């Protein structure tokens, strides 16, 4: 669909399937309503998202945007399998995943400008950004997300107060152990797989998974 | 004369701190520098044995800090090199017999008479380590190409930085180039990548070290020893000379070239 809005039998449909991220989706929705005169206060509109899946929270966010312009969400139209409540769904190119749309936000972020060596520990209630390496034996513990702009070889614990949406991203992710909320994982025993791209760890379906990160 | 205090440390035991201290000290003395070696491994002293000076000990470091003797009385003159002295550790006491403050005063007193004051640090991160680094201007970290040694070196570098010794330099000891070639041993590039500090030198594994240690003759006195030659080059680098890091075996040209690139990273 080239045009974002179509009128079928007097009903208005907004196509949000063309956007790749939830952020863009929200932005696109706002722009469409602002630029089009056909929407009247109190109109009920359908939103089409194709094969993509949205969480309940994300659907509520879309509804809130519509309400800001005096519109109501009539129906969320999808082609996807029903009943799945995943975060943003990127079926074709999971390898090119960016930071997840539902990544939690924290006010406080600690910026650490050195390598963390064995025996050194850093803790913050919010996010932690490290401009350096985290060596084996070092520990990074954050209430929020962890971003390492170097090699993560030590232990990192994101969402330490139980936030399962927290993520751990690193330029090179070779950790001794990863913890997100109360999930603990370690790399499989045996052969070391060398990945020469940035990676991101998060919880998907109750498991810590590692994906390539495209920034 | 304003001498430089250099602590030689590693965290892990048995990687060659004492051997390194003895050899670098001897090599510096061979270059006509005035050098004193301080053994801070109180209770487990070894440096005197490696130097072959055990039977000359009358007073030790604990006697000096407790004012039982003058500093000059406790310094043992080396039997081979002019300008090389040893301040031995006490064997009957433990690490708490000396405080970091006393060590600082001691090294400051020695600065006036020597070019280099080399402090042989005990293994571990407790009182002995704290004593050894107290008066130091510079630190040399010794590590062998083993994961456990590199891990401990990393910890030690962190503690050195916390104590204000910001640019420690690394000696990789006991490297077996054949094993590295086969991929059975960590190579220099791997170690530097993890520790991210400057490389001061690489000492190859050398059986002659065992013999020289047992005889109390530092390997640098043996002109055929490969390890001894490596220590001599390290000593030249410590004096500020620009000596390139040697390629460790006689591999073909491309291989040596590749290794050079790796080191330059």
Automatic annotation (TrEMBL), chain A:
Q: Does the keyword Cell division apply?
A: yes
What Gene3D superfamilies does the annotation carry?
2.160.20.70
Q: GTP-binding among the record's keywords?
A: no
Task: Specify the domain of life of the species encoding this protein.
Answer: Bacteria
Signal peptide bounds:
none
Q: Which residues form the Septum formation inhibitor MinC C-terminal domain?
A: 112-210
- The protein's name in its UniProt record: Probable septum site-determining protein MinC
Species for this entry: Thermosyntropha lipolytica DSM 11003
The beginning of the lineage is: Bacteria, Bacillati, Bacillota, Clostridia, Eubacteriales
Automatic annotation (TrEMBL), chain B:
Amino-acid positions noted as binding ATP in the UniProt annotation, renumbered to this chain: 12-19
Give every CobQ/CobB/MinD/ParA nucleotide binding domain span.
6-218
GO BP, one annotated term:
negative regulation of cell division
Q: What does this protein do?
A: ATPase required for the correct placement of the division site. Cell division inhibitors MinC and MinD act in concert to form an inhibitor capable of blocking formation of the polar Z ring septums. Rapidly oscillates between the poles of the cell to destabilize FtsZ filaments that have formed before they mature into polar Z rings.
A Pfam family cross-referenced in the UniProt record is CbiA
Cross-referenced InterPro entries: CobQ/CobB/MinD/ParA_Nub-bd_dom, MinD, MinD_FleN, P-loop_NTPase, ParA/MinD_ATPase
Q: What is this protein called?
A: Septum site-determining protein MinD
Q: Which UniProt keywords apply?
A: ATP-binding, Cell cycle, Cell division, Nucleotide-binding, Septation
Protein family according to the UniProt entry: Belongs to the ParA family. MinD subfamily.
Species this protein is from: Thermosyntropha lipolytica DSM 11003
Report the SUPFAM superfamilies cross-referenced here.
P-loop containing nucleoside triphosphate hydrolases (SSF52540)
